[in-house]
What does this fold into?
Amino acid sequence: GQQVMQIPQYQHVQEGEDFTTYCNSSTTLSNIQWYKQRPGGHPVFLIQLVKSGEVKKQKRLTFQFGEAKKNSSLHITATQTTDVGTYFCAVKGGGGATNKLIFGTGTLLAVQP
Amino acid sequence: DTEVTQTPKHLVMGMTNKKSLKCEQHMGHRAMYWYKQKAKKPPELMFVYSYEKLSINESVPSRFSPECPNSSLLNLHLHALQPEDSALYLCASSQTADRNLYEQYFGPGTRLTVT
It folds into this structure.
C-alpha cells in the first residue's frame, strides 16, 4: 500500500534550537495535512497544504509543500518545551469514493529546557 | 463545540469478554472514523462511516464490529479479542469524506488492554 516516510524518527533539541521534520511520498499528492500528538494525547490537526510550493506559517511553525507535491516539511523556530510531541504528516489515501487519511511514520520531538 | 468524546478512557478485558467503545460528536460531521494506534506508531485506519453507512473496512478482523446508530454516535463492539489487540483506539470525525479532504477531529481515545 501507499507509504509515507518521515525523517527523522526522533530528534532531541535544546530549548531555543530549531527543528525540522520531512515527509516524503513516492507518489504525487493532492494535498497534505499535519497533526501533532502530545505524549499521552491524541492527534490534533495543525494545517493542510494544497498548492505546489505552498508555504504557510503559524507563529513559530512553517509548513512547506514541495514543488513536485511529493514532499513536505514542518520547521519550528526556537523550540519551546510546549512543542514536545510527535508530528505526523497525513495524506489522502485510497482512490475510491470515500477519502481516507494515511499517516506518515511520525517524528518524535523532545525538547530539553 | 469542536469536541469528540470517547468512553471509556481505559478498558481491561479478557479474551472471552464482550465490550463496546463509544464515540460522540456534535459538530454535524457526516464522516466518522475508528483508528487503532500502537505505541510509537502512527494511527492506523480501521473503519470509515460516511453518512451513517460503512464506507471503508480496512480488512479488520470480525472480532471488531462497528456500528453507527445515528450521525452523532459511533460504536465499536469488541468480542473475543487477542492480547495483540491491546492499543489506543481513537475515534475521529470530519465534515465529510466524499469530496474534499477535511481536517479530522480526534477524540482522546480508549486505552484497551486485553488480558
In short: The two ends of chain A are 40 Å apart (CA to CA).
